[in-house]
Amino acid sequence: MSYEAEVSRSNPSAFLFLIDTSGSMLDSFGGGAGRKKAEGVADAINQLLQNLAIKCSKSEGIRDYYEVGVISYGKDVKPAFAGKLAGKVVAPVSEVANNPARLVERAKKVEDGNGGLVEQKVKSPVWFEPKASGKTPMCEALRTATQTMSSWVETHPFSFPPVVINITDGESTDGDPSSEAETLTDLSTQDGNLLLFNCHISSSSNPSTLFPDTPEGLPDQYAKTLYEMSSRLPESIRDAAKREGFQVSEDTRGFGFNAELVELIRFLDIGTRPSNLR
Amino acid sequence: MAPSVSAFRAPKAGSTAEEWEDAFCFDPGQGRFCVADGASESSFSATWARLLAEGFVARPPDGSTLRDWLRPLQDEWAKDTKGRPLPWYAEEKARSGAFSSILGLCLESDDRGWRALAVGDSCLFAVRENRLSSAFPLSRSSEFHSRPMLLSSADRANAGIASAVRETEGLARPGDLILLMTDALAAWFLAEAELRRRPWALLERIGTQEDFETFVDWMRAGRAMRNDDVTLLKVEVKP
B141 by DSSP, 3-state: which? Predict the structure, then answer.
C-alpha cells in the first residue's frame, strides 16, 4: 500500500515549492489592473508556511513533522528563503518558523462569541519576498528539485513521499520539462513516489480548472504537458479535495490551470494535506 | 462504602509520557470522577484538560450554566500562557485557545444513582452483570468520525456550547462497573460491543499501568485502535 505512512517526528515528510519568478510575474492576475502575480504568489507561500508552522506548533514549541523548501526560478534558479535561512534549500519546519525574514504586525478582526467582532493585533511572518525578472527555466528548476529530493528520500526511506508544488504563469523557456518531471517523480520512499503538483496561474480571464481528471478542454499543448507532468492524487489528498467540494476520480491530477489567487491558495492548502500527523 | 477507582493512561505512539494531552481527576470519597481529552491541534491543551478535570471534581458544573462555570478556569489557563513571551506561532496558537472534551461522573452519596455530563467524544460505559447497561454520550462506533464540539479556553469559541452539552443519569448497584475513557479506546470498545463481544472483560483484567500499556500496544499493532492518547478510569460500585 502506498501513501499511508503516518507523518511523525521520526518520519517527517517534505514540501518543496518551485516558484516561477520570471519577468511576466509583474503582470496582474486575470490580466486586469489588480494584484501583481509575483506579490500574490509571495503572499500565498508566506501564508502557507505560516499555516504549516502553526499546525506543527505545540505547547513546547514546533514539532518537526515536515521539512520545507522554496526554490525560485527566473533570472536564476536558487533557494528563495531570505534572512537567516538564506541559501538553505530545505529546512525543518521549526527552523523555518523561528527564522522568518521579518514579522509584519497587522490588525485582524475576530468574532467575540457574542455576535460581535473584536480587533486583535497579530504578527504575520514573511519568508519570501516578491520578485520578477528573467525567463522561465523550469527544466533547471525541476533538476534542482531532483538533486535536493534524491538525497532527502535516501535519508527518509519510510516517510510519506515529498510533495513538490510548482507554481508558474508561463511556458518553460529551457525546453520541454516532461522528462525532467519524470526523473523527479521517479524518486520514491517505501511509501510511494514523490508527488509533483503543478499550478498554472492566470494572466487571462479564461475559465480555470482545478484538480481535473482529463486533459480534455485544456486550451493548448503547454497546459496538456503540465497536466501530464502532474501526479495523480493519492487517496488522502483526494479526500481532502472532495471535502472541499471538488469532483474527484482515481485519475484526478494535482494540477491547476489558469488559477486565480484564491484558487492558488486552495490548491496549496489541499496539496499540503497529505496525511495524519502523529 | 466509597467506590474503588483505578486510572490508566498512555500517550500516542511516537510521543513521550509528558506529551500525553488527556487528563483525569477523581475524589472517590465525594463520588466524583472526570476525564478530559485535550485536542492535539491546539496548544496548551494538556493544561486546559487538567484544569477542566480538576474543576469538575472540585465543583461539578450544571449543563445550563456551563459557560459561566468555565470562566475562572479560562482565567487560570490564560495566566499560564500569558505570563511569558512567546514566539509568533505560539502567540497565534494561544490566541485561538485550547480545546478539550470533558466527561464527568457524580455518584450519589448512597451510591444508588449517578449522573454524568459530557461535551465531546469521551465516553462512559456502565456494565452490570456482564452486560453493557449504558453508553454515553455516544453509543455507536460510527459516531466517532465527525469533529466533536469541544470546550474552549477562549470564551468566544464556546458560543454554541449549550447545544453540545449532554447529561444523563442512571441507577447504581453494588458490583456495577463504570468505565470512563477517551475517544480512541471508546471507539474500539463500541466496535467490539457491536460485534457482541465483551470488551469490558478485557479492561476488567487490567490491573497495572504496565498491563494497560501492553494492552494499548497490542490494540494499536492490530490496528484495532487508532493511535491517540488514551485514558481509562475504572470505577467499581461497592456494597
Answer: helix
pLDDT at position A201 over 70 = yes
The 10s digit of each residue's pLDDT in B179-207 is 999 999 999 999 999 999 999 999 999 99
- Taking a C-beta distance cutoff of 8 angstroms, is the pair B26, B57 a contact? yes
Hey, what's the cell of A62?
A: 514546533
Look at the block and give the residue holding cell 502575480. Answer: A37
Full-model pTM: 0.81
Predicted pLDDT of residue B156: 87
Query: CA nearest B228 in A: which residue?
Result: A278
A270 torsion bin: left (phi>0), alpha (psi -120 to 50), beta (else): alpha
**Any idea what DSSP says for residue A230?**
S
Closest CB from A50, A58, A112 relative to B43: A58
pLDDT at A33 over 80: no
Cβ pair B44, B28 in contact under 8 A: no
Phi-psi region of A245 (alpha: psi -120 to 50; beta: other; left: phi over 0): left
Q: Is the confidence at residue A75, as pLDDT, over 70?
A: yes
For residue B78, give the C-alpha cell. Answer: 490564560
User: A117 to chain B: nearest residue by CA?
Assistant: B156
Residue whose C-alpha is closest to residue A253's, from A196, A206, A212? A212
Overall residue count recorded for chain A in this entry: 278
- Dump pLDDT digits (tens) for A90-122: 999 999 999 999 999 888 777 776 777 888 788
The partner residue sitting opposite A112, judged by closest CB among B44, B95, B156, is: B156
Residues of B in contact with A110 (CB under 8 A): 156
3-state secondary structure of A258: strand
Mutating which of B16, B89, B223 best tests the A interface, going by the most A Cβ atoms within 10 A? B89
Q: Which of B104, B80, B98, B111 is nearest to B42 (CA)?
A: B98
A80 φ/ψ angles, rounded to the nearest 5 degrees: -105, 0
Of A59, A98, A112, the CB nearest to B44: A59
Question: Is the ipTM beyond the 0.95 threshold?
Answer: no
3-state DSSP of B19-46 = HCCEEEEEECCCCEEEEEEECCCCCCHH
Is residue A208 predicted with pLDDT exceeding 60?
Answer: yes
- Cα A145-A147-A149 angle, rounded to 5 deg: 65
What pLDDT sits at residue A252?
A: 94
